[in-house]
């Protein structure tokens, strides 16, 4: 066959025909023909792989094969077929120029490496999508590990491409990389720190996707929506997105509200400021009126009996209320608030329920703080419950002859 071609070229020269022009026409025609065949092989391969995966997905319960289709695995894998086809026909395609043959084989091998990288990428995307459907992996930083693997695959691929271009062994480039490791550490510092942080976050279970996180340094206060190799995305409650470096979750302080979400209740810590001028000892008429309040009637009976016994034992002069022991309207109201919270159906009885008096401030107001835990944790429901409780407590002040100085909204947890 080779002999006939040379004979054909000699015949062209005898007829004064431009041999170089004929060679290029011959080359372009054959090249177009081979590219057409390669394209056809790629299309047929893609159709065959897609058809196989679709049939497989109907027979299996797992969705892994479905995600292979979505990640364009058939498209990338079908590129392997024309690669091997062209590689096998190159020696018969270009027979007059070993140099041109070498260049074409080099380009084909580079193409093969890139296609292999994309195949691995589609497989990793498939694994990522599949793992995120599992409950045990939904809150894990899967993106970080996928990105590390992709970085490793691209590094290996680039080394192999340089090896193909230069004709040197892969080990030569690995040795060279060892020499420039200091430069690589500097260039990929954030990536390395992010990878280390991702491992520590996963190992210590510091942050999960969906956690409510507060990080004042970066103005972040919302839910974690993504954890990857270099950044953590937090969707704030005003729907803005705050992006912070992954390593900051290890090096800086932040607050994770997951403990609250998993506990028996969400804390209510809020105060009512009582005017100090309205605080006084209770007289008999007031006590008789307060006895009709169901939540403290038993308490008043027990306390009155106890106080009367102690006053009689100490022979106190009760012509003045200040002598001996006496009940105050604020003390009885404090007990009422505590009893009200303990019997409230939406206040947790497994956690602390307390109404305490705080030191008076410079304005002559005495803070009475409610400390309890709501079983309602969802923000809107929680705020409505808190408002309903304080509406009742504020309205009840009048029955105890107390006056509110002002409302001081302390931060709620």
Blueprint of the fold:
Blueprint (H helix, E strand, L loop, with lengths): L1 H13 L4 H41 L4 H7 L2 H6 L1 H14 L4 H34 L10 H25 L3 H10 L1 H7 L1 H16 L7 E4 L4 E8 L3 E6 L4 E5 L2 H4 L3 E2 L1 H5 L3 E10 L8 H7 L3 H21 L14 H14 L11 E4 L7 E10 L4 H18 L7 E5 L5
Antiparallel strand pairs: 1-2, 1-5, 2-3, 3-4, 6-8, 6-9, 7-8
Helix pairs in contact: 2-3, 2-5, 3-6, 5-6, 6-7, 7-8, 14-15
Written description of the protein model:
With 413 residues, this protein is α+β, with helices and mostly antiparallel strands. It has three domains: 2-133; 200-262, Roll (SH3 type barrels), CATH 2.30.30; 266-408, no CATH class. The chain contains 16 helices and nine strands. The radius of gyration is 40 Å and the shape is elongated. 17% of the residues are buried.
Any descriptors?
413 residues, alpha+beta, SH3 type barrels, 3 domains, five-stranded antiparallel beta sheet, four-stranded antiparallel beta sheet, 16 helices, elongated, disordered C terminus
Low-confidence stretches: 407-412
Task: Going across the biggest sheet, name each strand in turn.
Answer: 4-3-2-1-5
The run of helices and strands is: HHHHHHHHHHEEEEHEHEHHHEEHE
Q: Give Rg in angstroms.
A: 40 Å
**Which structural class fits the helix and strand makeup?**
alpha+beta
Q: How many domain regions?
A: 3
Using the alpha-carbon principal axes, give the shape: elongated
* Biggest sheet overview: 5 strands, antiparallel
Number of strands: 9
Brief summary of the model shown:
This protein is α+β, with helices and mostly antiparallel strands and 413 residues long. Helix content is 59%, strand content 13%. It contains 16 helices and nine strands.
């Amino acid at each position: 066959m080779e002999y006939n071609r040379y004979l054909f070229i000699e015949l062209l020269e005898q007829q004064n025909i431009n041999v170089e022009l004929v060679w290029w026409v011959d080359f372009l025609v054959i090249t177009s023909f081979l590219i057409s065949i390669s394209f056809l092989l790629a299309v047929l391969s893609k159709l065959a792989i897609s058809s196989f995966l679709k049939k497989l997905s109907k027979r299996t319960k797992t969705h892994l094969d479905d995600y292979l289709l979505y990640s364009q695995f058939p498209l990338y894998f079908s590129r392997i077929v024309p690669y091997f086809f062209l590689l096998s026909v190159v020696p018969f395609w270009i027979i007059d120029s070993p140099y041109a043959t070498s260049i074409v084989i080099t380009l084909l091998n580079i193409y093969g490496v890139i296609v292999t990288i994309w195949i691995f990428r589609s497989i990793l995307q498939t694994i990522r999508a599949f793992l995120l459907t599992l409950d045990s992996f939904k809150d894990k930083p899967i993106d970080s590990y996928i990105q590390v693997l992709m970085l490793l695959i691209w590094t290996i691929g680039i080394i192999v491409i340089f090896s193909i271009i230069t004709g040197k062994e892969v080990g030569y480039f690995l040795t060279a990389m060892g020499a420039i490791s200091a430069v690589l550490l500097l260039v990929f510092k954030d990536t390395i720190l992010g990878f280390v942080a991702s491992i520590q976050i996963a190992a210590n279970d510091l942050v999960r996707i969906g956690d409510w996180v507060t990080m004042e340094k970066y103005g972040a206060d919302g839910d974690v929506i993504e954890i990857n190799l270099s950044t953590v995305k937090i969707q704030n409650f005003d729907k803005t997105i705050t992006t912070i470096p992954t390593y900051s979750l290890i090096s800086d302080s932040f607050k994770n509200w997951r403990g609250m979400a998993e506990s028996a209740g969400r804390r209510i810590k809020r105060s009512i400021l009582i005017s100090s001028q309205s605080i006084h000892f209770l007289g008999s008429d007031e006590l008789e009126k307060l006895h009709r309040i169901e939540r403290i009637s038993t308490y008043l009976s027990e306390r009155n009996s106890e106080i009367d016994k102690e006053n009689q034992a100490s022979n106190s002069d009760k012509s003045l209320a200040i002598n001996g022991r006496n009940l105050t309207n604020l003390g009885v109201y404090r007990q009422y608030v505590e009893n009200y919270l303990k019997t409230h159906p939406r206040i947790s009885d497994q956690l602390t329920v307390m109404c305490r008096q705080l030191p008076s401030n410079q304005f002559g107001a005495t803070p009475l703080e409610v400390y309890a835990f709501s079983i309602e944790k969802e923000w809107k429901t929680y705020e409505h419950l808190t408002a309903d409780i304080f509406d009742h407590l504020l309205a009840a002040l009048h029955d105890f002859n107390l006056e509110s100085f002002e409302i001081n909204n302390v931060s709620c947890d």
